[in-house]
Amino acid sequence: MKVTAAVLRSPESSFAIEELELGEPRADEVVVRMVATGVCHTDLLSRELPPELFMGPIVFGHEGAGVVESVGADITHVVPGDHVVLSFDACGECRECSAGDPFGCYTFNPLNLKNVAVPPGRLDGTSAFTDAAGEPMGSHFFGQSSFASHSVVAGHSAVKVDKSYALAKLGPLGCGIQTGAGAILNTLAVQPGDSVVVLGVGSLGLAAIMATKVVGAGTVIAVDRHESRLELAKKYGATHGISGSPAEVNEQILGITGVGADHVFDTTGNAELVVAAFEALTFSGQLGMAGVGSPEITFHYVTLITNRKVLGVVEGSSRTHEFIPYLAELNAEGKFPFDELIVEYPLSQINEAAADSLSGQVVKPVVLFD
Ligand SMILES: [Zn+2]
Ligand SMILES: [Zn+2]
To answer: Which of 67, 74, 79, 183 has the highest Cβ tally under 10 A?
Structure first.
C-alpha cells in the first residue's frame, strides 16, 4: 500500500514529504489511517543529539490519532472502523507490564525511542516502510511512526476512544498531554488542597496545571520566563505565576506557601532551577521530573536525606488504555481543555509546525492529514 509520510533522512535536515510502501501488519499489529498527529519535542530531539546517535532514515511522530483500517490475527481490543489515539508501546510480558504498569516496561527505550543500538523499526530489525528506492525506512517510533497517512502500529499503542469525540484533536493525549496530566494525577498523586509548583508551562506544564484544577489542588504556582505563558497558566488554574533566578524562585515559593510546597513538577530540565525548587519543598514533599536538559543534577545531601522523594515521570505513569479515554472524557465535559492549546497545520507545513514548537510560539502543533 502506498502512503505519504514526512521522513527525516539526516539529523540536520528538515522533514521531507515522500511516498513510501507500507507493509502488512503482523499478528499483534494494527493498520491505522491517520487523521492527525501532534508534534512533540521528542520528534525533534535527534537534531539536538550528537549526529552519531542518529538512527538512520526514519518516520517520526508519536501522538497519532486515526481510524483502524485492519488488524492482525491476535488483535482483539480494536476492530476496523474504531477510533484510536496512539500512545507508547510496551512489551506486555515483563514484570512491570504484567503488573499493569506499561510505563515501567523493561524494554521501554528500545521499543519506543530507537537509537543507534536498536534498529529503527521492530525489535527484530524489520521495518514497516520501504522508500521509492526499495530501502527500508525506520518505523515503529513509539510503536507508531505517526507522521504518515497510514502506519502499521503496535497493538499496545492503539488505544480505543469513543467515536463521539472530535478525533483530530485527541492525538496529543498520546504523549505530551498525558505526561503533564499524569504527573499530577498518577505519579505525584496530588490530593485536594495540596500545593503544587510547575516549572515551565509549555504543553506538559499547562496540562499539569489543568490537572491540578481537576483534582482540586490548593496553591498552584507556575514558573516560567515568559509572562504570556504565566498568564495562560493562570487562565487554566494556577493561583500564582512567578519568574526569576533559581534563588528568587526558591524564595518566592517559600514566601507564597509559608511552609514549602507539597509537590514540584519539572518540565524544564534546568538543574539549577530544579534544585532550587526542590529545596522549597516541605520536609515530606516530592519532586517529579520530566524535563530534558542539563546532563547532570546535584542535590545537597542534607536536603535529600529527609522524607522528600525524587520521582522520574515517564508518560505520566499512564495506564494508557484507561487513562487516555478518561482524559478524553474530561475534555468532552469541558474539565480538561487541552485542545485550546492546539494550532493546526497541513502535513505540507510540518517543518513550520516543528519550528513554531521549538521557538515556543505555539504550545501544541497538530498536523492534519487529508
Ligand atoms: Zn514490558
Ligand atoms: Zn512525546
So the answer is: 183
